[in-house]
Design a protein that fits this description.
By secondary structure, this protein is of the alpha/beta class. The chain contains eleven helices and twelve strands. The strands form two sheets. It has a nine-stranded mixed sheet. Bound molecules: S-adenosylmethionine (SAM).
Amino acid sequence: MTITGTYAEFAAREAHGVSPSYERLALAVSADDELLALLDTLPATKRQPNLLFSVVRFLGGPVENPTAFRHYMVANWPAIEAEILVRATQTNEAGRCALLLPVLAALPQPLALLEVGASAGLCLYPDRYAYRYGDHVVGTGEPILECAVTGVPLPSRVPEVVWRAGLDLNPLDVTDPADVAWLDALIWPEHAHRRARLRAAAAVAAAEPPLLVRGDLVDDLPALAAQAPAGATLVVFHTSVLFYVPAPRREAFTQVVRTLPGHWIANEGAEVLPYATLPQPPGDALHNVLALDGTPLAWTRPHGQAMTWFA
Ligand SMILES: C[S@@+](CC[C@H](N)C(=O)[O-])C[C@H]1O[C@@H](n2cnc3c(N)ncnc32)[C@H](O)[C@@H]1O
């Protein structure tokens, strides 16, 4: 896809109805030849709207007004470019635990959790958070994760987790203020509730930091999985990760994960992990597919805000 197409699609499918300021910025960039030419100088993997906008936020630049953003981007391009080249979109959204919970709670307990593409590991604490699915509340911790559900078999309690570990090419450290500042910059401008959620989830993780291993989700998965304790159900899971992984490596990952004992939960785009048949998604907005051991179960919204179970 062209850069202009990428920004127009981000505006229409990801930011529309979720972040008016990023929708405005993405549309403005998609129609601005000078800004597109700057982005064209970057490696193809570094041109995403989310990375550009987060770097500008991280540097203290304006992201509300497209004209102010444009002036800032042109005037500060060397600093923006330098930051883009060393950073990656590693949004760590604890809210995605609300999507995992119904599946995790239905597996034989206790659980040994292994997340690939864990970022800072905030999705490794589904037992510590609380959940509100409409009127149905599960758990007593913080943050409280809200998720609108349709047809979802809801659990009555959080799972029992006896081991948690994460694998990431570039693990972030919730006890490092610079890493937390970057995680904050990755959150979209209007999403004060997600910023509060990040702080609360980071406090949970910082109180008992997870085992986070720097490594690749294909090459280094078996060795980390081998560290899981006997007597617990191993659950390998990933949310919003395989989009970043080239297709042949995704295939290699699915082969490796199927050789492991236990279960595999995927929450990824429908085109990222193709399934034989899927029902129509519940609208035009971007939806991911939640799957257990390769069987698709539900459409999910990217930040964990909604889930529609397949009939
Ligand atoms: C968008 S973040 C998602 C983080 C977390 N799963 C969540 O949902 O909040 C994607 C993460 O995948 C990691 N990643 C990408 N490719 C990877 C690979 N081949 N092996 C391990 N981690 C990878 C990135 O470094 C990044 O931290």
